[in-house]
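Let's practice the habit of predicting before peeking. Look at the sequence and jot down your guess about where helices and strands might fall. Then scroll down.
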Amino acid sequence: MPRFSRCRSLLCELSTSPVVEKLSLLLPVLVLIIDIVLIEHAVRINEQYIIFFTSVLFSLSVTEILIVLSEIHTNYQKNIGLKTLTAKLSDFMAHKKGKNVKILVSQFIERHPEYLSNRDEVYQIVCKILREHEQSNSRKTQKNK
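Done guessing? Here is the structure:
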């Protein structure tokens, strides 16, 4: 089974990717299928001119599929990284009572220096978490009234 680990991870990435990315993969696959049919027909009638150009089109389709799969993989890795960062920030902010975003970001980066290059993302996620806490607190106060 270890031989299929890349296929399984690719299928997992494809299943969690947005619809737009899945659609961007659909067109090159359709072109690739048409290329295969054209190459097969050109080989059967032994037309060298058509074989050459359909082979070029085939290689471009394969290249485009590889590029789209690479983009899907990159976006998947980025989303996983953001999820882990959000989880770490939520845990960190559960222990901190302050609501000053700058101080929270600075303290988090001091504790986790590996996120120094991602300071903007840390800032945005801290703001998002604080906004969610504020909304949940306002709902609680409205229910108590």
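How did you do? The helical segments are 5-16, 19-45, 48-95, 101-111, 119-144.
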